Amino acid sequence: MGxxxxxxLIVIGSGSLAVAGKTPGAQLTLVSEVAAIQPGVxxxxxxHIRHQPGFHTxxxxxxxxxxxxxxxxxxxxxxxxxxxxxxxxxxxxxATHPAHGYHRDVLLLTEITPPGRIAASSITLExxxxxxxxxxxxxxxxxxxxxxxxxxxxxxxxxDPRWAxxxxxxxxxxxxxxxxxxxxxESRRDASPIRIRLxxxxxxxxxxxxxxxxxxxxxxxxxxPQKARRQPDGSYLIVAExxxxxxxxxxxxxxxxxxSGSWAAGRKLRxxxxxxxxxxxx
Length: 282
Fold this sequence. Notes:
The protein is mainly β.
């Protein structure tokens, strides 16, 4: 059964369909890190998702069930939007199926680059949103959100007093590459299972706790469960079945790796990003 089919069956079984702007489970709002934009100076806009108790929304690869949150931008002429920068997800549960998503209030960050010259005194950013909020039932959502910002003429952008700090905190915690662990793949391209080896450097945590590989492009799904074990040499081995809907002929495995403890010794580092390459020999 395909994951979209499974998601639709859950929605139909719940008897719930969304009405734009009135979707149960989550409130979605566009917010900005700056109080006014500056011509030619990139800035960050975030989609703030506030979940009702017991509900979750989905990461970019939701797993076996779910629909990822998406933003279709409609911007003024000359403006450009980058991709969503996704915080590390968690395992969430939908009708006994594990999936990848968020229970917490979360900020999905997008960098907006304005043109070097802006004649208007203010601009409006428009995002057409798609999402799914689930608890015991699922509620797909479709809505348009707008954010209007003044155009400043100062040399330096002024931070928004309501959102600048929260956006900065979310940005600091985004998964990034780390030299603390060397990540390699010990299986051939398109083969199953996928075997991922993590080897610690001296400054890494000796015991990161429970670890999990969130495949960013769907090569690994959320079902069946993956197995992660520490090896006698101190490395960790993750063994995961390749999804039946996995993209084919990929040269690498982009992944967010999450630990219940920390990947680093003496400081908090719950998530790192890696993109190990498959062997060139088939």
